[in-house]
Specification:
Layout: E1 2-5, E2 13-19, E3 22-28, E4 43-44, H1 47-56, H2 59-68, H3 70-78
Antiparallel strand pairs: 1-2, 2-3, 3-4
Helix pairs in contact: 1-2, 1-3, 2-3
């Protein structure tokens, strides 16, 4: 499951995914390829970063709520562990 957010101002796009129960993000260049500086490396969002998305009701938070359900999303926001319960 992936979500691609493109910017209207030419700044790099961000791609989000749920992988093995973890929410991850990477940066893409405006043409859709990976940015060399990041090496197209996926990095895991922290509970604090997820909480900011939820507090601001971002598109990412709305997508995660549809994919994970509000209970799992809430758990991910307060979880001290680096991964959530596996999503089936």
């Amino acid at each position: 499951m992936r979500l691609l957010l493109e910017s209207g101002d030419g700044s790099p796009a961000k791609e989000y995914r749920i992988d093995d129960g973890n929410v991850e993000v990477r940066t893409l260049d405006p043409e859709g390829g990976s940015v060399r500086s990041t090496g197209s490396v996926w990095w895991r969002l922290t509970p604090e970063q997820l909480s900011v998305h939820v507090e601001r009701n971002t598109v990412v938070a709305q997508w995660l709520e549809r994919r994970l359900g509000w209970r799992r999303l809430l758990q991910a926001c307060v979880d001290q562990e680096p991964s959530m319960e596996k999503v089936a």
